[in-house]
Specification:
The chain is an alpha+beta fold and 268 residues long. It contains six helices and five strands.
Length: 268
């Protein structure tokens, strides 16, 4: 059944969508309603909150099929690109928005089956737009203060209040990049047994151990600063706890692999 889209100044846009905990006929009916609404309004993507359903459900049209993303989270992203965006909520407004160029998404389908998928280009942008809605945010939250004020002045009742802006750059990423940098240096020491004397090798082994400690400290720093940003930017999908834990798991996996391989060669 075709549903009405919420539009400005409906404050429901600021509601944070809950995770789906049941996968039954009611959920399937919601998804059907979302697809019918997309067809009626010629939309390429839609989040459930846009038709008044406060659950983390996104449907995207991909070629001739409609893909459902339930309880979706971003666990990885690369690159940035700027593109003009429009919204069915703030009609008549367009603005240039920076978003990740490539993202990796984990989600469930309507049968509760888990999936992960890499999206890039327009698909990645559409997904990020809809995920913003799921977490009580809109593209307006991604522009600078001056541009946001211009939009507020243009709107009859000003911007719909709630949440805070979702930043383009997260300072926690400096901790992550530092950890990855040291992991890469440790990995480079893999080749040293082939070129250096045992005495130099012992020196390399000592440096590796020091860098290992630095990586662990950076991961701890990442965790606590990420929690701080999660509290500060509650509406931001990139700040959710699942994303933070996912990043730490990836770092820990890289560290364990590199440590096991390098130390096996150097210590043996």
């Amino acid at each position: 059944m075709i549903q009405n889209l919420i539009k400005y100044p409906d404050p429901a846009i600021r509601l944070i969508s809950a995770n789906v905990r049941f996968f039954n006929d009611e959920l399937k009916q919601w998804i059907t309603d979302m697809i019918d609404t997309m067809k009626a309004h010629d939309l390429s993507a839609l989040s459930a909150i846009m038709i008044g359903i406060q659950y983390n459900i996104i449907v995207m049209k991909e070629a001739d099929t409609y893909t459902t993303y339930i309880n979706g989270r971003l666990i990885k992203h690369t690159g940035m690109c700027t593109q003009t965006e429009r919204s069915t909520y703030y009609e008549g407004i367009s603005v240039d928005v920076d978003r990740f160029e490539k993202v990796t998404v984990i989600y469930e389908d309507e049968n509760a089956e888990p999936h992960h998928r890499d999206l890039e280009g327009e698909e990645a942008r559409m997904y990020q737009q809809q995920l913003d809605y799921c977490f009580g945010s809109t593209f307006v939250d991604r522009v600078d203060r001056e541009r946001k004020q211009q939009i507020s002045d243009y709107l009859k009742e000003g911007l719909v209040k709630g949440g805070g802006s979702c930043p383009i750059i997260f300072y926690r990423d400096y901790f992550r990049r530092g950890a990855q940098y040291f992991i890469a240096l440790i990995a480079l020491s893999f080749i040293t047994p082939f070129f250096v004397s045992p005495k130099v090798l012992e020196w390399v082994y000592t440096i590796d151990r020091a860098m290992l400690i630095l990586v662990v400290l950076l991961m701890i720093g990442y965790f606590f600063y990420a929690l701080y940003e999660a509290r500060k930017y509650k509406q931001c999908p990139s700040c959710q706890t699942g994303n933070i834990i996912g990043t730490l798991i990836l770092l820990a996996g890289q560290l364990l692999i590199v440590t096991a391989v390098v130390f096996f060669w150097i210590a043996s």
